[in-house]
Design brief:
alpha/beta, globular
Length: 111
């Protein structure tokens, strides 16, 4: 499994990358000066949950197609609906990845 994403150039970005690698995920992290996007869920009661999204102007929103690696050794590509929703350049990057993959692709329309 390989993850291609953007993360900030701080200890937070390092922590995220290290934890993923410890789980066996090969990471390709584009280091950016912007912060790493974040979603925080607050459980207010047994059934009431509130979610805060901190994604606008995040490192992931600054992805561009030139950030993509070569896709010559993949068997499948999975993308989420989050990245293309972050910005026009992030959307273009996802569409370019699907074009380059030359492998089956799946899409999960995350929130």
């Amino acid at each position: 499994v390989r993850l291609h994403d953007a993360a900030e150039q701080t200890a937070t970005g390092d922590l995220i990358e290290r934890r993923l690698r410890n789980e066996g995920v090969r990471t390709i992290a584009i280091r950016d000066e912007a912060f790493t996007g974040l979603m925080v869920r607050h459980r207010r009661s047994g059934s009431l949950t509130h979610v805060d999204y901190h994604r606008s102007m995040s490192a992931g929103s600054r992805l561009v197609p030139a950030d993509l690696p070569a896709f010559d050794d993949i068997d499948a590509l999975h993308v989420t609906g989050i990245t293309p929703a972050l910005s026009d350049t992030a959307r273009a990057t996802v569409f370019e990845a699907v074009e380059r993959a030359r492998a089956p692709a799946s899409w999960f329309p995350s929130t």
